[in-house]
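[Q] Does anyone have a clean structure-token version of this?
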Amino acid sequence: MFFEAFGTDSFLLLTALLLFSGVFVAKFSSRWGIPALILFILIGMLFGSEGLGIVYFNDASTAQLIGVFALVIILFEGGLHTKWATVKSVALPSLSLATIGVLLTSMIAGLSVYFLFELSLLESLLFGAIVGSTDAAAVFAALKERNIKAKMGATLEAESGTNDPMAVFLTLSFIELITSPDTSLWMLIPRFFFQMGVGLVFGFVLGKLASVSINKIKLDSSALYPIFSVAFALATYSITAFSGGSGFLGVYVAALVIGNSELTYRYSIFQFNEGFAWMAQILMFVILGLFVFPSELFTASIMLNGLLLSAVLILFARPAAVFLSLLGMNYSNKEKLFISWAGLRGAVPIVLATFPIVEGLENSQGLFNLVFFVVLTSALVQGSTISYVAKKMTLVGPKKDVPHHSIELISMGKAKAEMIQYQTNAESAVVGKKLHEVSFPNRANISAIIRDNEVITPYGETEIHAGDFLYILVEEKYKAQLKRTLEERVKKSKEKQREKQKQDAAN
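[A] Here you go.
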């Protein structure tokens, strides 16, 4: 093959070509209305042995290793950007979807396979376990920068970030039941609660440790802080897994803790992890595309069975699980239907489908191909229509303001100063005031204002508008005081509004 013939040089060239392809695919995927993961997988197929014949790859263990590594990075990045204030309002329903919802989806899908195809009950339930969870990489990518209603977005992101442990547990449990018939199902239940408990505790503790370490340890270069954060992500997964807990849950919880803490070099850390997560997605989906053989995937049997199972999963198993999991909770039928439709399958089911291959289970390759086709169908049908369905169901929220700009300071660590980004809104007390009318703490100055993606040079007469991004230069020791000032102003504004509403009602 090409790689074998030319060695190191060909490997570096191939890596560059794959990254170039991934970057351009990511750029045009939203414009074409096709989820990026589909195009990444197609790139892998194109470079594979049955495409251009550049790479022959059939190592399930390596695919699994790369997949798990990439999922850790993607989960960590997603958790960093998740605001606890938004998530805590949907914590209970998200947890219900991540546990009861995954279990119900897995059971319904598995029993459907058992009655439709000639597979044993345990093999059928194993398929259901593999496709039972939504995928964090697919959901985070599908919802990013889309103006889905905040409640819906928070529910879906929290569910996808926390339901991988349930899917992993069910998959490994059914593999153990198949390979070790003497294993008791009842013995596995306490193990699940132990894994979840250890994952939560270790994730929280290591997340706190990471936050304190990032703020307290003075590194020589600001570029080392993002690498430091990634090291904590990988360490959290490993330490939690070695302790018998759920590594995926530990990583997501740790990321939530870190992302919602005050951090030195916060934006450098976030931007680095966002870029690294994109790289992990490209690598993971391309490798998974290389691993599949189109001649085995696109057969009449796999395609017909895959379409049938996709229909069962999308139209019956997922909706039934969502409606049952959210019984008695504050969600309308319309919202439940949208959550059902937006439950995308992605990398997690494909990575989990490599576990039976590694264990040498009978029918494992056919099971992998079936899972792969179901994922492609889910991503293509559901992933490309999320915005359309949200609009039709009137579940569209305000347009997301995502800053695509940054302001960097040289030697910020040595200067012991930091640039704080703060976005104003209609409730901010500073809105409508001129800069000379605002009393910021000592040693805190607005260095720039971004308004409608344009830079405004601030001076005393500059008026602050709602939606402005204020970049405030402040010494580290005054950062907490600045934060309190900004929060107090928002609270005071809300109190004034409530008083005004009472006065209007009295009149």
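[Q] Thanks! Anything notable?
[A] Residues 94 and 221 are 39 Å apart (CA to CA).
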